[in-house]
Amino acid sequence: MLKKYDYLIVGAGLFGSVFAYEATRLGKKCLVIDRRNHIGGNVYCENIEGINVHKYGAHIFHTSNKRIWEYVNRFAEFNRYTNSPIANYKGEIYNLPFNMNTFNKLWGVFTPEEAKNKIEEQRREAGISEPKNLEEQAISLVGTDIYQKLIQGYTEKQWGRSAKELPAFIITRLPVRFTYDNNYFNDRYQGIPEGGYNVIVENMLEGIEVRLNTDFFKNREELEGLANKIVFTGMIDEFYNYKFGRLEYRSLRFEHEILDMDNYQGNAVVNYTDRETPFTRIIEHKHFEFGTQEKTVITREYPAEWVPGDEPYYPINDEKNNELYKQYKQLAEKEENIIFGGRLADYKYYDMHHVIYHALKTVEKEFNLEDKMV
Ligand code: FAD
Ligand code: UDP
Questions:
Q1: Same domain, 324 and 228
Q2: Which of 54, 114, 168, 351 sits at 20 to 30 Å (Cα–Cα) from 37?
Q3: How far is the CA of 171 from the centre of ligand 2 (A)?
């Protein structure tokens, strides 16, 4: 039977949007659906008081891949924003990521050698040779003082688990530098799209049919009947009706507030690294775009255990969940007409540039364009 669409794309986030854009360029007919009432997935911004508010948490684009950078720049202009978060530990302010400014403030050391000696001394005292979990990895990278003030509290609230139970890789996302450099990322390219992330996604989806407020699982049979192939970017365990059990996720609650002042905290991102403050960070959105509006909008980010019905923001890539994911992946690999991709279907802690890379690789594979895209 002739189907109406070549591809049904479930999810209007970055993965779905890149795939839809490229497939359409190649002459395919796509239908994109999303269960939310807007496109963009987690990069969606809402304009409040003239400020682009990152509704699902701060999003800073960064990559070292020149082709990915050139690719996103086709859809929007990027500004020169460089992420330099501040940590607030019980009123003490430290620079992030961990660098000479942090070490100087904490220990009064001036030289890289002094800082390295201090960390080595603390690492030796803790008796860690081969780090096996986040706690050990953190102490071996930056010592116990920084671990206790800037990592343990934040991490345990963020993940709702002891740092001893968490995989070491999570903390290696953050650079440790022996220079006075507060740039949170090591990547060569970084910035925020001017006008917010919606500009990118709107440009990708221009002219493509999109149905919002449409949950794949509520009309599965009908939707499956519409297209020859499905690109699925939702939760892989939900796709298989949780037949091997549920994957765990970490969720977040965002509390947005408009304030009648022009500058609340002087920085886009301030992390609250103690255990007691119930939120992990406060975002002041205007600073992503050097805004000069009269008012400001801030967002407090409260971590929460994910329960069905919540948004699943972070996969919990510990051993137990990774093993479970492998079972779902084996099923996925046998599918001929279903393509899985993105943060939820791959169950990976991807950044935006990873998602775009994987979407373009998927396009290459699907359309036999070996290495033509990235
Ligand atoms: P998503 O954006 O999650 O899109 C998936 C879409 O599928 C969603 O819109 C969802 O509603 C829809 N969907 C799911 N199931 C169904 C269904 N059954 N039916 C219909 N629709 C469905 N990355 C960076 O590079 N830099 C950052 O600073 C950064 N900060 C982040 C901060 C936070 C708080 C979070 C949570 C993520 C952050 N990321 C950051 C990661 C970034 O958001 C993701 O890598 C990227 O947006 C994922 O794109 P995606 O298309 O895979 O998924
Ligand atoms: N982290 C921390 N203290 C901080 C910031 C981050 O301990 O002030 C740890 C925490 O475990 C977090 C991880 O580093 O989950 C990765 O941080 P990142 O800022 O990359 O998290 P994301 O923006 O993806 O939530």
A1: yes
A2: 351
A3: 7
How far apart are the C-alpha atoms of 239 and 346, rounded to whole Å? Answer: 12
CB of 58 closer than 6 A to ligand 1?
Answer: yes
Helix (H, G, I), strand (E, B), or coil: what is residue 334?
helix
Amino acid at 64: S
pLDDT < 70 stretches in the chain = 1
What is the span of the domain harbouring residue 19? 5-82+189-247+316-366
Question: Cα–Cα distance between 145 and 139 in angstroms, integer?
Answer: 8
The SS3 of residue 63 is strand
Q: Is 269 in the pocket of ligand 1 (CB under 6 A)?
A: no
Q: How far is CA 368 from the centre of its chain?
A: 29
Mutate to test the pocket of ligand 1, among 33, 96, 343, 358 (most ligand atoms within 8 A of CB): 343
**For the chain, where are the alpha helices, taking DSSP H only?**
14-25, 66-73, 100-107, 112-126, 134-146, 152-159, 198-205, 220-224, 236-239, 319-334, 342-345, 352-366
Do both 95 and 226 map to the same domain? no
Residue 309 domain flag: no
pLDDT tens per residue, range 131-185? 999 999 999 999 999 999 999 999 999 999 999 999 999 999 999 999 999 999 9
pTM of the model: 0.97
Other beta carbons less than 10 A from residue 372's beta carbon: 10
**How many domains does the structure of the chain reveal?**
2
Q: Note whether 74 and 200 are same-domain residues.
A: yes
Residue 332 shares a structural domain with residue 219: yes
Nearest CA to ligand 1 atom 23: 351
Distance between first and last Cα of the chain: 35
Between CA 246 and CA 308 the distance in angstroms is 10
Hey, what's the torsion of the CAs at 351, 322, 34, 29, to 10 degrees? 90
What CATH number is associated with residue 12? Answer: 3.40.50.720
Residues 102 and 78 in one domain: no
Q: Which amino acid is at 196?
A: G
Q: Are residues 336 and 240 in the same domain?
A: yes
